[in-house]
């Protein structure tokens, strides 16, 4: 019926094809008998493509869930964060290069943290003084960092002995070699004798070299500290053969070889003075720490207990082991009957 289709179309806002389909379905429904209302409704639903119990399900269909939606959202966000080229395409190797840079930075920080505490502090101070020298200029930095006895005594510029022991000048091949020597010899001493003993060694060397450098007019004595470290190490095993440059020499000759190489590079005999001061101060420490106690003297360079507990984490365990061994030895000692006095 054309008038019925027009009224349905105007009422529900349907287009011409939808209204025609609706009219045909209504005619089919009227042609069915009134007794089978349930059958007619099912038949009409099947014609319109609706759900039915008898209608078989398609297998392999996908169903959405919250987890799948979250996964798709994360993948889209990751894809959007990828670096792109000027044409809008994803940059090849962009994610791998960023991962490699992060891993390289992490490895560097891990190696830095693995350095022993006092050696790490010393190397950090060397880097800071070098940075100050680059920012302020070499002349201004030397005026600020050099050892000046009058300013230390009367001006209370107490940082000058420490900066005089850590300033190596502007970056160069010599700077790199000196920093490597500080790391290598400092780590060996700290590993051999402990952090607390290394603190006593460095404090004594800075004090003694400050006095000697002030008397002889030396503004910086970092190379003297390096030579003193090497001298103490070489005296611990003097006759061991080591390789220096292309030569195999006894260990005790290394400080003198380092002095000779600096004199040859500078072309001036005055370059030997810092190394002479380092050998003297290092031998002063070695004598009072290792030789004088064997001669019956007191080891007054032994670190105090509170410093050892603070800086050496294994100090308490070592003391407990020593006490247990002494107690066990006393318990195992056989007790005799003894003798009466005058018998």
Overview of this protein structure:
There is one protein chain. 67% of the residues lie in helices and 2% in strands. It has helices at residues 2-12, 16-31, 37-47, 66-81, 94-114, 117-136, 138-145, 149-154, 160-164, 173-193, 195-216, 222-236, 254-266, 273-291, 305-311, 315-332, and strands at residues 241-244, 247-250. A two-stranded antiparallel sheet has the order 1-2. Strand 1 (241-244) and strand 2 form a beta hairpin. Helix 1 (2-12) crosses helix 2, helix 10 (173-193) crosses helix 12 (222-236) and helix 12 (222-236) runs antiparallel to helix 13 (254-266). The protein is globular, with a radius of gyration of 43 Å.
Short description:
The chain is mainly α. It has helices at 2-12, 16-31, 37-47, 66-81, 94-114, 117-136, 138-145, 149-154, 160-164, 173-193, 195-216, 222-236, 254-266, 273-291, 305-311, 315-332, and strands spanning 241-244, 247-250.
Question: Structural class of the secondary structure composition?
Answer: mainly alpha
Instruction: Write the H/E string, N to C.
Output: HHHHHHHHHHHHEEHHHH
Radius of gyration computed on alpha carbons? 43 Å
N-to-C terminal Cα separation, in Å? 148 Å
- What percent strand? under 5%
Q: What does the average pLDDT come to?
A: 76
């Amino acid at each position: 019926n054309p008038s019925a289709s027009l009224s349905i179309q105007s009422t529900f806002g349907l287009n011409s094809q939808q209204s025609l389909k609706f009219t045909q379905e209504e005619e089919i429904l009227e042609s069915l008998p009134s007794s089978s209302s349930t059958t007619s409704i099912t038949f009409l639903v099947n014609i319109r493509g609706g759900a039915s119990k008898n209608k078989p399900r398609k297998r392999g269909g996908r169903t959405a869930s919250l987890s799948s939606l979250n996964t798709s959202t994360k993948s889209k966000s990751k894809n959007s964060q990828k670096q792109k080229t000027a044409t809008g395409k994803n940059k090849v190797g962009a994610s791998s290069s960023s991962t490699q840079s992060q891993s390289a930075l992490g490895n560097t920080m891990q190696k830095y943290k693995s350095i022993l505490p006092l050696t790490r502090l010393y190397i950090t101070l060397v880097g800071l003084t070098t940075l100050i020298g680059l920012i302020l200029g070499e002349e201004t930095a030397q005026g600020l960092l050099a050892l000046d006895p009058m300013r230390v005594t009367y001006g209370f510029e107490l940082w000058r002995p420490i900066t005089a022991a850590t300033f190596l000048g502007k970056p160069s091949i010599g700077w790199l070699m000196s920093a490597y020597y500080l790391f290598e010899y400092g780590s060996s001493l700290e590993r051999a004798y402990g952090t607390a003993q290394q603190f006593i060694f460095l404090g004594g060397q800075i004090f003694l070299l400050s006095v000697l450098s002030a008397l002889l007019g030396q503004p910086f004595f970092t190379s003297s500290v390096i030579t003193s470290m090497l001298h103490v190490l070489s005296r611990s095993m003097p006759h061991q053969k080591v390789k220096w440059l292309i030569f195999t020499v006894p260990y005790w000759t290394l400080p003198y070889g380092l002095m000779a190489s600096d004199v040859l590079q500078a072309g001036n005999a005055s370059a030997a003075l810092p190394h002479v001061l380092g050998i003297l101060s290092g031998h002063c420490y070695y004598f009072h720490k290792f030789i004088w106690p064997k001669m019956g003297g007191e080891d007054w360079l032994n670190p105090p207990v509170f410093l050892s507990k603070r800086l050496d984490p294994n100090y308490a365990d070592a003391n407990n082991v020593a006490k247990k061994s002494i107690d066990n030895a006393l318990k195992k000692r056989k007790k005799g009957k003894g003798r009466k006095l005058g018998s």
